[in-house]
Amino acid sequence: MLKDLAKILRNDFLKNIFTLITGNTVAQIIGLLAIPILSRMYTPEEFGEVALFIGIVNVIAIAANARYDMAIVPPKRSSQAFHLFTGSIGITIVVTVFLFIVVAVFKGIITSAFNAESFSRIIWLLPLLVFLLATHKSMHYWFNRDKKYRTIAQNRVILSSAQTGVKLGRFAFTNGYWGLVIGTIVGEFVAWAVYAVKIIRNDIWRFRFLSRKSMRKALKEYANFPKFLMPMAVINTFSVNILVFSLSAIASSTIVGFYERAWRVINMPFSLLSTSFGNVFYEQMTKTANPKRLYSISYFANLAIATVVLTPIMLWGEPIFGFVLGKEWVAAGTIAKLVVPLTISNYASACVSNVFSAFRKNQLLLVWQVAYLVIVVSWIFLARSFDIYLLIRVYAFIGAAIYAVLAYMGYKVVAKQAAIR
Question: How far apart are CA 43 and CA 103, in angstroms?
Answer without folding.
Answer: 27
